[in-house]
Amino acid sequence: MRVKIHVRRYNPEQDPAPYWAHYEVDVEPTDRLLDALHEIKWRVDGSLSFRRSCAHGVCGSDAMLVNGVNRLACKVLIKDLGPEIRVEPIRGLPVLKDLIVDMEPFFEAYRTVKPYLIVDDEHLPEREQLQSPEERERFDDTTKCILCAACTTSCPIFWANGRYLGPAAIVAAHRFIFDSRDQGAADRLAILDSRDGVWRCRTVFNCTDACPRGIQVTRAIQEVKQAIVSNRLRGDGRAAGAGAAGRAADRLRAE
């Protein structure tokens, strides 16, 4: 099967502006887009630049805009894209070269929400902290994130305002806010209850559609909004632990 692949290329060190490069390669319908890009890189034009690592949808490094939609090149098949394919870098992040973008603004937002387990000195466990299946299930969906940035760079709010923390950072916060072992929920909720936090979300669902792991991103964002509201309703100024904030949000949603 012969396909035409149009790649939006740009080298800021030598190109005055981005341009389209056009290639034709022979591939199998069941090949992945990544295979076609390898064919170009290895046999047609060695100057083409893109990221890839595991090639199995785990590392998240090869996210790109494919026919107008964010996808992992290693997961999308040629037969599902058709004989003519447009490939561009993901939007909203500075282009370093061709399909490679600067991920540092994305990771800076990720670090902002404290994506790690927080336990204060008074609650340090003496042994392994066990969770029930129900406690684990509460945040299981958001543990699947591979930090590919497909969700964040599909968000029109992020395109217009790079200060917005974005869906991936909120998903990372969700994973710990609803973890019964964590004590840092109040800090995360305060960070997200800010000018550039969850309230910028307009519930477009682009993030959910773009996620290669099937995470219900929009739902996670809504649950964090509910947790913030429930934390406000407490009104006692005390820092709510993750379990408390999560349970309060669950009660609010049930009502």
TrEMBL record:
<keyword id="KW-0479">Metal-binding</keyword>
<keyword id="KW-0816">Tricarboxylic acid cycle</keyword>
<dbReference type="GO" id="GO:0008177">
    <property type="term" value="F:succinate dehydrogenase (quinone) activity"/>
</dbReference>
<dbReference type="InterPro" id="IPR050573">
    <property type="entry name" value="SDH/FRD_Iron-Sulfur"/>
</dbReference>
<dbReference type="Pfam" id="PF13085">
    <property type="entry name" value="Fer2_3"/>
</dbReference>
<comment type="similarity">
    <text>Belongs to the succinate dehydrogenase/fumarate reductase iron-sulfur protein family.</text>
</comment>
<dbReference type="InterPro" id="IPR025192">
    <property type="entry name" value="Succ_DH/fum_Rdtase_N"/>
</dbReference>
<feature type="domain" description="4Fe-4S ferredoxin-type">
    <location>
        <begin position="135"/>
        <end position="156"/>
    </location>
</feature>
<dbReference type="InterPro" id="IPR001041">
    <property type="entry name" value="2Fe-2S_ferredoxin-type"/>
</dbReference>
<keyword id="KW-0004">4Fe-4S</keyword>
<comment type="pathway">
    <text>Carbohydrate metabolism; tricarboxylic acid cycle.</text>
</comment>
<dbReference type="InterPro" id="IPR036010">
    <property type="entry name" value="2Fe-2S_ferredoxin-like_sf"/>
</dbReference>
<dbReference type="InterPro" id="IPR017900">
    <property type="entry name" value="4Fe4S_Fe_S_CS"/>
</dbReference>
<feature type="domain" description="2Fe-2S ferredoxin-type">
    <location>
        <begin position="1"/>
        <end position="93"/>
    </location>
</feature>
<keyword id="KW-0001">2Fe-2S</keyword>
<dbReference type="InterPro" id="IPR009051">
    <property type="entry name" value="Helical_ferredxn"/>
</dbReference>
<dbReference type="InterPro" id="IPR017896">
    <property type="entry name" value="4Fe4S_Fe-S-bd"/>
</dbReference>
<dbReference type="InterPro" id="IPR004489">
    <property type="entry name" value="Succ_DH/fum_Rdtase_Fe-S"/>
</dbReference>
<keyword id="KW-0003">3Fe-4S</keyword>
<dbReference type="Pfam" id="PF13237">
    <property type="entry name" value="Fer4_10"/>
</dbReference>
<dbReference type="InterPro" id="IPR012675">
    <property type="entry name" value="Beta-grasp_dom_sf"/>
</dbReference>
<keyword id="KW-0560">Oxidoreductase</keyword>
<keyword id="KW-0411">Iron-sulfur</keyword>
<protein>
    <recommendedName>
        <fullName>Succinate dehydrogenase iron-sulfur subunit</fullName>
        <ecNumber>1.3.5.1</ecNumber>
    </recommendedName>
</protein>
<keyword id="KW-0408">Iron</keyword>
